[in-house]
Amino acid sequence: MSTPAEPNLAHTNLVGFNTIVIREFSRIVRIWSQTVVPPAITATLYFVIFGSLIGRRLGDMGGYTYIQYIAPGLIMMQVITNSYGNVVSSFFGAKFGKHIEELLVSPLPNWLIVAGYVVGGVSRGLVVGGVVTVITLIFTHLHVHDMLVVMSAVLLSSIVFSLLGMINAIFAKNFDQITFIPTFVLTPLTYLGGVFYTIEMLPQWAQHVSHANPILYMVNAFRFGFIGVSDVNVGFAYAIMIGAVVVLYVACVWLLQRGVGTRE
User: Fold this and answer.
1) Under 8 Å CB-to-CB from 67, ≥6 apart: which residues?
2) CA angle at residue 190 from 69 to 161, to 5 degrees?
3) What angle do CA 23, 29, 35 make, to 5 degrees?
C-alpha cells in the first residue's frame, strides 16, 4: 500500500522536471537571434557555396546530386552543434551564476536533473534541425527513404551531444573551457564525419581512420533515412549511438552525485 509521501514526491519530481524543461525552452525562444538565426544563415551559405556553386562541378555522388547528398549531413551538423552548445552554455551558466546549488539541494534526483537539461538540448537541436530542413527544401528536394530512421537517428544523436555538452560544462572552470571542445574537437570531427563527401573518395588508410570518428556513423545513419545510402553499417551505427547514450547518461548522473565541478 502506497504512503501519502510517494505521490507527493512523484508530483514534486514532475514539477521540478517540467520547470527545467520550460526554462530551457523559454531560453531558446527568448534568445532566438542567437539560437536559431546563426545556424539558419550558416546553412544557407553552405547550400549556396557547396551545393549550388561547387556542387555543379562535382556532379553526382552516391547516385544523387551533390546538394541532395550533403543535405542530411548539413542538417545533422547543425543538430549536433546546437544540442551540444545549448547544454554546455546553460549548465555552465548555472554554475557561473551560482544558482546551480539551489537545484542540487532540491529534492529533485540527479537523474531527473540530467534528463531535464538533455530535453532542453534536444529541443534546441530539433528546432534548429527543422529550420535547416525548411531551408534545404528551398534549394533541393528531400526524398525520405525511411522516416523512422530519420527521426530515431536525429534524436539519438541529439541526446548524445546534449550529454557530452553537460560533461563539458561539469568539468569547465571558465568560459574558455566551454569553447575549447566545440572549436578544436567537435568542429573537426564534424567536418571529417562525411558531411561533405563519401569516405569511398578517400585513400584506404584514411577510410580506416574515418571509421574511428563516431560522428561518421550518426551522419550516415541520418543520410540513410533520407536517401537510402550509407558508408557504414546502419545497425552498427545504432549500436554506437544507443551505447553512447547509456554510457554518457550514467556518467553525467555519477558526476553530479559525486559533486564533480559543482561542489569544488
Assistant:
1) 47, 50, 51, 52, 55, 139, 140
2) 115
3) 110
Which residues, 6 or more positions from 259, have their beta carbon under 8 angstroms from its beta carbon?
A: none
Q: What letter represents residue 148's amino acid?
A: L
Q: Residue type at 95?
A: K
Per DSSP (E only), the strands in the chain are 60-61, 64-65
Profile the chain (264 residues) by mean pLDDT over runs of 10 residues: 61 90 93 92 90 74 85 95 96 88 87 96 97 94 92 98 96 90 90 90 91 96 95 96 98 94 76
Q: How many residues can be counted in the chain?
A: 264
Partner residues linked to 65 by β-bridges: 60
Can you tell me the distance from the alpha carbon of 157 to that of 220, in angstroms, rounded to the nearest whole number?
A: 11
| C-beta of residue 225 within 8 angstroms of C-beta of residue 140 | no
